[in-house]
Protein 1
Amino acid sequence: MIRDSEKQRPHERLEVWRDAMALVESIYRITSPFPDSERYGLTMQLRRAAVSVPSNIAEGAARRSTAEYLRFLSMARGSLAEISTQIEIARRLGHMEAGDITEALLDRTFARLNALIRSIESSPRGVRETHAPYESPIPNPQSHAR
């Protein structure tokens, strides 16, 4: 008998991917009431950045090399930084208030993504074996962790 966990794709088993998916849902909800004038501006920017986070985590998890995996995780982290900035812009423009659940999801996703990156980088089979001298493709993996 096949267990449910065996049916899942590798990225679907990652808590960070599940958090990123919840973040996408939250971003879509909070941007729905944004003014029509933002439809092709801030609304689309936030949604695109949000969708790219779980997409890059999934694509990285499907890659065969650790270096490629880390590169896609780095892109996901960059998209999280975009979301953080865009949320601040939305707040300053009065489209949303501080303390929204989206910010808690953003912080949690950042923290879990940074933990995954550190875990992969420190694993015995990490990029250190394939790249000499070793240089992390992800500068400052602790940035944005709260």
Note: The radius of gyration is 17 Å.
Protein 2
Amino acid sequence: MLSIYKLIAAVLVFVTVATVGNSQQVFKGKIIDAATKEPVAGASVHCSAGCSCGCATNALGEFELKPLAHCCVSFEVSYIGYQPVTIQAGQLMTIVNLQQDNSPMQAVVVTASREGVKRSLAPVAITTISSKMIQDAKPVTVDQVLNKVSGVYMVNLGNEQHSMSIRQPMTTKSLFLYLEDGIPIRTTGLFNHNALLEMNMAAVKNIEVIKGPSSSLYGSEAIGGVVNFITVAPTAVPVAKLSLQGNNIGYKRTDLQTSFSKGKWGFALSGYYADKRNSFIEYSDFHKANLTARIDYRFGEKTLLTNSVTWMNYYSDMTGGIDSSRFVDKSFGSNYTFTYREVKGLRYRSALSHNWSDNSKTTASVIFRDNSIGQNPAYAIKDDYRRLSNGTWTGKKDLAHGEINEVSFNSYALMIQHKQNLNWKKAVLIGGLNVDISPSRYSAEYIRVNKDSVSRIYTGYQSMDSMLTHYKSDINNYAAFANFEFSPVEKLRVVASLRYDLFHYEFNNYLQPSSYSGSPDTQNNFKRVSSKIGFTYNFSSTAGVYANYSEGFVPPQVTEMYKGVKVPELKPAVFYNYEVGGWSELVKGKLSADISVYQLEGANEIISVRMDDGSSHNMNAGKTRHKGIEFGLNASPVKSISLRFSSALSKHRFTEFVEKGVSYNGNEMNGAPNWMHNAEIWWRPAFVNGLRLGVEWQKIGNYYMDPMNTVKYDGYDVFHVRVGYKWKAIELWVNMMNAADKYYAYTSSKSNFGYSYTPAEPRHFNMGISYDFGELFKKK
């Protein structure tokens, strides 16, 4: 009997020990991005001892690991694009923060293929501006971070207005495509050059920039480059951040960022209000309110519904550029006292994503846009007193002519995309369909402008109840695309994409056709097949090369098609890009570099040609050539110091270009700097946790101000100094912009009307403070 008791006791002890042992080995937690606080799905959690114990995080970043034995003393958490973290098994850590990898080549990018792919497998020149870069820079305007990318110069035209240069001269032409989470901010063909006015930077997580044509994936206007703003998703832990900032030249702004998840629901609300008064340039006030709300619902592990809406209200005085005499005298008075631009925008997107399996995923998105732009533009004011071709002067010195115009449009769009991993050579096929129906309206009313003939100031205007232009236009875009990639051998990745676009334009003129009101009612169709093929070859995990051939196209804008009495026979402008490049992590975790060399040929470019009778006529007659070298370097010699250098050497020439009877063949294109450099160094001293100090240098080389190449602008060098300190939930920063108080122009030009300069902001201090109330919830 005693032996039976001993046996029962031994069994109970064994069961108890096993139970206790197993309970001690259950390892639970949540993996999140240290910068954005978003969950990291698919992260690997595995035993450092090299055994088979391991698991992956679910869609919410959660994991639960039950090791089979006592072999797991520590665990390693890893995911592509992040620095791995080692955790001791005895640590009871609920939240694990992953820091983004210092090497840009290890990042995951989505714009290159419309789905996430490792940067080193994408055969394009693509750069990611990480959430950390944005948070460190604390940009007031988008150009303050975009210009860190090699070969990119976003020109600040004041009050968030801009022109752009990416493998193109500085221009307001529709040669760049601006996306929000992979969807165009504005519809094609309708004044897209100022689309970034509608961007809510408070909702932006990171930015991806593709340089060169991407029409094979994204359609028209993706010529010089594609800029994709990726917005924040609901966070795994509560975030409620409020920030205030302002500078000494009249700018003030407040930001709100709040987000949390509860069960199957996720919520995010981000926005800001900016206001500027009495700046260094006369008549340059503005205000902007922007708000983005997002609600996610997860039906299960495989299905996610995302709904987001962005509302924007913008108003700005339009001061215009200043002439050469005022620029030399540093006189910032304005000739205009009543010109303005007002923009109202609403964007809604609902996306349903379903993972059929680990190898199959479908996403369907419905998009609605409601946009209006009303303005009394400074560029439309023309003096009545003018010089004729025979040298004589005519007209009244105290009279000028202008207009008040408004354009508005709605968009109804559907985008369906499917990704399929194939069980052959690691092949992946991504395909989809797009439909965009965008009716628009435009009207322009003539105004009589009063001018002081002595001071040359336009003092006021009278409405003459005279309609210059009034029409309705419909632009419908139907498209299908496919992207296929595979690895015929281990280190080689081949990527090919193809897209077909059909545009249907319908123009309805409410007025009698004339040179002002536009053409008769008409319909036009434009279609194009765009292709891309490229490859990457990775010699190792630290070095690789790529090459690609890609095409881009731009259909005529509505104003190019229907502004004259006669509808011109126009074809879409087409661009052909040839590119090679490479990357290398020279010292692991400390030094990496990338380079790209390209040649971009433009054909059928639309230009305005002066006819024999003195009228102007749009036609396909222009050809251009753009070629250059882009170089980037990232270094972190010690843990507390990081350096970045980006550079671009480029040449932009007219090969066949005749405008208004003047030939520019062989000339350099105006507004096209040969050199663009940007360098930055950050120091984060270990002895003061949370402190950062950064210095940035930007150089824009000289460029011709006119297409005849008669005069050059010297370019500029400018320095910015940034200091920030974060302690728990509080963050403080001071950015000294234009630290050397350099006097220069963001952009300059010369035309038949004279010189025009956009003066850069003088030295100023932007100071801010933020507090994350989400820290209070964590403590509870």
Note: The CA atoms of residues 172 and 193 lie 5 Å apart.
Protein 3
Amino acid sequence: MSNKKEFAIDFAFYTYLWDFYYYNKKKIRSKYKLLSRKFLDFNDYQNPTSFLREPQFEALEIYIFLKEYQDNKKIHEIFTDWYERKGGFENRGDLGLTEGEQYSLFTMEIEEYKSVFSRMKKFELDYSNYIFALTMGTGKTILMATCIFYEFLLANKFPKDKRFCHNAIVFAPDKTVLESLREIQTFDKSKVIPPEYLAWLNSNLKIHFLEDSGTTLNTIDRSKYNIIISNTQKIILKRQHKDKSKVESLFEYASSTGSAYDQLGDLYGFDEPSEEGELLSNQRFSKLTRLGNLGVFIDEAHHAFGDALAKDLGLKKAKTSLRLTINELAAALEKSGTSVVGCYNFTGTPYSGKEVFPEVVYSYGLKEAINKGYLKNVHIEGYTNPKSNEFLRIAVKDFVQKYNTQRFEGMLPKLAIFASTVEELQNELRPQLEEILNDLKIPIDKILINVGDDKITSNDDIREFNKLDSPGSNKQFILLVNKGREGWNCRSLFGVALYRKPRSKVFVLQATMRCLRAIGPIQETGQVYLSEDNLMILDEELDKNFRLNVEELNNTSNDKERFKVRLVPPPVKVTLNRTQKLHSLRDKVVSEPINFDIDQLDLTKYQLRKISKDGLNGSRKISDDLKDEREKKQFSQYTLVAEIAKYLNKSCIEIESLVVNSLPGIDNLVELVSEYNDLLYDHVIPKLFDALYELKPYESKEEYEIDLVKEPKEGYYQFTAKPELVAELSKSEYKAIKEKTFHLDTYCFDSKPEKKFFQDVVNSKDIKKIYFTGMLTHGQSDFYIQYIDPESNTVRNYYPDFLVEKSSGDYVIVEVKGDNKIEDPVVLAKERAARETATASKMEYKIIKGSKVMNGESINILEQDKSYVQTSLVAESQGNYSKGNKY
């Protein structure tokens, strides 16, 4: 294989796409429709009330970026624009993220570009095709629902914009996954939809759940806002090899009329389709062709790994029936004057063996999800040469020893034990398990069997299986045959045991991952028990699908331990003053022409210039403004007036009159803002606002007393932390100073500087009290400060690290922050709000660099007055200080 080809199949464009978006987010969002910005702000995972997790929200950001900023372009077109720095990518840099999240200089030679482009182009479809690769347990179903709801809101607001879907079909591979997609139907939409749009969506949304073969699709032709959720087998086209008999023709006619004979349509003995040959349509497919602006969403759980997904996504020559059906659907819609807006594939991995799928636009991997706590940690054990009974006894005894009768969210932990055949389960596995449970004095009614055979698995067993994730279930040992793959979302599953080598290697990976879904307030650990053969298979499959191995997966826990944290009486109370700011807006009467003072503007900050330097010691050369390279939107008098009116709540007629009579006049303004677009928003609109309105601020201060920690319902809170970063009241080293601190019996610090600050300050004679509050960030405390996020302009809660009481009785709110974060815009926004609250409450606020703490300067900084600390920080930020200190 040539280096060029290797580069193409290893090139992960999605990392550079995210890099560009992240560092240009503010400018990119300014191009979005207002509704898109509102939707993102409402769902931002950093909001205290947001429902979406970080990977869900980031995927939504990329989804809207592709929709709004890239106009639904195909991936090879986006890649070309990115490479050539055009089409919105003019400001992209050469820095990219490596796998270890370190920055590296990225350059691509022309031959490498051509090889990547040709690979993307080779698998081009007639519609945009994007892949969102989020590992299991991160919430792909909710993400799909959120994306569809977004589409419908925008389609309603902008019905002629062809980028937005008016209808959506969600494909599931089988009945198990289909059942999991019911969450789209039952999901509380208020969690992701801004309240002002919820009533419209509830009254217009129509969900069609095609549960079985006899279900017809009853959409109204050319209707909008339909979500069709279906097993792929109920929609896909099939190839007919023989002429239809008269009886088959009769059934086909009956089916087309929507009668009870519909169910026979899926029972014809036709083979899977190929590229050629006559394709047999069905009632549901025909109905889909009469819906406009269709978005196709594929829940890829059945393709999560291996060649099947590669075929579906166009990486293999032979296309599956699903992909062929979507292609035919796109062609049929094109003929009827509409289209498939796009195909959105949701998968668990960006890889197919050694290859990176070329159309991946966002990826969130298995290791990331475990490290972030979105999944359980995992502990994998393999056993060499055990007999089946020995293996089973070891696994069950270890599982019982670890979990016994503990409950998590009120549910018993469960162990799934897989057999390769029904006969093996009945003749070996079941009697062996019953014997082991009898020896352990565990009732055998805790066993549940689900094998897909109604002679063995009764309807009662199915009901028990479906309610495993409920406090009422007493089942703990689940015996399965070829079950529990995709779509089985059992959060109370804490262990998997797999002894026999299955026919499908990927089944080992699919089965073992079932026990990793997160449960409870802290990160638990799933136990995996494998024979040596299956351990080797798991290693291979992890490498193929996640670029991981068993050793790396076992080491994702980061050596954190679980701590139960209890309140130490009496409860600590704090008096705070919070300031509420109000603004009164009054209209002004404009009696004189508005002067925009154009001649006083510094236009150089809007110009694009090239800085060049020959040699290391050469002088810098700065070019003139590169006018032709700058991104510019051309305004006319009408579009300029309309754009201004959007922001000022005035009629276009009134705005036009003001601008026409202004200095330097509307013609000069049109020419200027067409040349420098940002000038319109930085200068022209603010100047008009000041002329039209008078803004008067008012402040209202409220004093109230809060508990530093709320009483936990269960008597304690649970946290995970590295043992070396924990301070416990019970330890002898802290007994001498327990009167000065510990409103909780255990402090779980996030970093070495936090713990060192605590130890230095608590041992100081000049300090009366110190309380660590930085661990209470999930509603356990009312000690927070509200600030306005500089990116989204939404209100968020900030929880400071420490509250310190000096011997003088003065209070200081303290934040210990890594050196590289001091100048972060969010940190600065938190600092401004905290200083305001502290001043109103007759306190001080100090933000201290981690390096200063590690150098033993904590006490000196606490004793310095506020003006010195602020001046010192500003001076240091202008110097040549390290930005990358980590502790």
Note: Confidence is low (pLDDT under 50) at residues 96-105, 250-280, 301-318, 866-887.
Protein 4
Amino acid sequence: MFKNYLKIAWRNLKTNRMFSIINILGLAIGLAITILLFLSITYERSYNSMYKNKENIYRVLVNTGESYDSKIYCTAPAALAPAIKNDMPEVKYAARILKHGFGETAFVKVNNTNFLEKELYWCDPELFEIFNIEFLKGNKASAINRPNTVTISESTAKKYFGDSNPMGKTILIDNEKQLEVTGVFKDFPENSTLHCNAVASFSSTFAAKNPSWGNSSFETYLQLDENVLPSNTESQLQSLLDKNVDKEGQWFTFSLQPLEKVHLYSTDYSNSYSKRVGDIDEINNLSFLAMLILLIACVNYMNLMTAKSEKRSKDVGINKTLGASFKSLIIRFYSETGLITLIALIIGLFISALAIPLFNNLTEQNLSVTLLFTPQILIGLLLFWTLTTLIAGSYPAFYLSSSSPKAALTSANKNGKGVVNIRKGLVVLQFAASVILIVGVIVIYKQLQFMQNQKLGFNSENVVAISTTAVQENNKKDALVQEFKSLSMVSDVAMAQGFPGVTVSGRMLFKNENDENGFQIRTNRADSEIINLLKLKLLAGKTLPLVKQEGDTLTEVILNKTALDYLGYTPEESIGKKVLIGGFRGNAYITGIVDDFNFESLHQPIGAYAFHNRRTESKNFALVRFKSNSLTGTMDQLGSVFSKVIPDSAFEYLFLDKNIEQLYAQERKTAMLGFIFSILAIFVACLGLFGLAAFTAEQRKKEIGIRKVLGATIIGITQMLSMDFLKLVMVALIIAFPIAFWLMSGWLQGFAYRIHISWYIFALSGVLAIAIALVTVSFQAVKAALSNPVKSLRTE
């Protein structure tokens, strides 16, 4: 019996070729997009799932209050892990992680060959136990117990030492520290938050000798014993804090973040070492987009089935008269739908497999075609097929099958209001979804354009930041600056701790000695040329002194306007005033005031910022402003000078404007994905509209013939056939606009500086939707209007 249903279904497909092609193509594209998005979502949710003890692993978070900056930090004090080991037996392991140079690139020398290493971490030995890292060489338990030891990944060992055995050999870090290789571990998976190329002994660092409760710069992971409640551990952490830090000094509290949430729920947290940070909001958006596109594709099928309901209802009436049961008709209609969706699924799988490389480029993921054939995905595809079949086949299976033989065969049923209303409702639903996508794409594009055109308060063009981390001698840095200045295409050079777009030191700014709360301020040690190099606007005073003598304990400070507003001074009256900044010991004085500038992304409001010349941090970047049009030639010259002055270090650099752009990479990715998938979704919607228009023209061909014989014009007939669809599109606009406004207003809340959703965005979206619908429908309408009335009337 089922075999007969499939034969009937296949015969119907061949009989109605155009409708079948539209149905299959629309569903295939919708399913291909849904499959790709489902792969992406599955991949993002798979992060850290490979670790054996994942249910008991937690990262310690530091929560600051309103007295500091009301943020959540992924790094904790260095003194925390040792205190946990001593006082909290329910914690099985505790390990600190310090990314080299607080995130800077390490300069590695192996056998007189220079390498750049961006993933060097200084860790406690317990890290290997917490994450059950597999060792290929060496003893995991003791590999980094001693100072000045390091373990490296399998690929890093290959890069540094080729095919030779790296065990017992040494590598030089930043021309300063010799480390002995004591182990080789398997490379971390791509979907791991932790991604170390080299893990060195934490006991080699400054923080191991003098662990502090005040410097919160160390990611700390814990593995709890089984059946230990994390809430109880959090309470114990607070008791540990009370034991070691006076209440006045407690500017933070601790909380625990489960490992399974580290990847997707850390977007708004600060100081995370990993660049592999996902976003649960993006996952939810992608899920919404996948369901929306799948819905549009399913609506296509249902629309075309309602359009053919007249012919199918007679078929149902005849079958019921001949004794067909309600159940058998449902099975028959679902067999046809299942066959169509199965063909569409196979084609969709093929399309998605071909599109994976392009999708990887857009999302910066590492999806593989083999993922399509994993049990999880195959089960998901089976659910896709089942869900699509159930949704898309619901109307013909239940509505048509439930009608009585008399109702199905009567001529009054052929234009029944129920069928027409269902079809109209589906068209409205489909185009409402399409309009929501159009509005979303326009809003995202306008926000990106706004951020790109926003005046940042400094000029990042033609500025390159060259890392000098490996240079230990100040005289070499001075020599490098002088050599750079001697180049004709160089206009300004300044050594600095950091630059806009890069995190620098965090301290507290106080109004006076009685100020108990203070205000968070970012401090950047820099040369006097920094103001001119960045083209900052000096509101009052002057830049930092050109030369600072050895033994000079006076600290000169340049504040931005936000910091000055907190202090309550005008720019002019602030010059020469003493300023209290944590760590500067009270002998800092204001020498200049600059206008506010965006030193972080536009997601964050402008905070307090200070340039200073106190010898508390290293100036590890040479900032160079150049005026040459030949970028390649400029970098070649700068590289030659660098190699001449500092021959024992690799030449690493980045451009400030490119670094600023990277702050908005996620938004550009979202915009591109939204644009591409919205175009495809609208295309799928237009396929359905095209099929409906063709069916309507076919249904009314005799009416069109009569009208032409009576003198109707082509324009008049086209207008008549198009207006019904355009009315439905207008209803879709009315429904879609409030929903789109609500959704995009929520998305824009993530930006401190954002556009307002203006009326013209909806006007543009509406015009686009109407134009798309009009072009789609008019093609069939004009074709029908141009047809020969004799052919349509010859049977009358």
Note: The first strand starts at residue 57 and ends at 64.
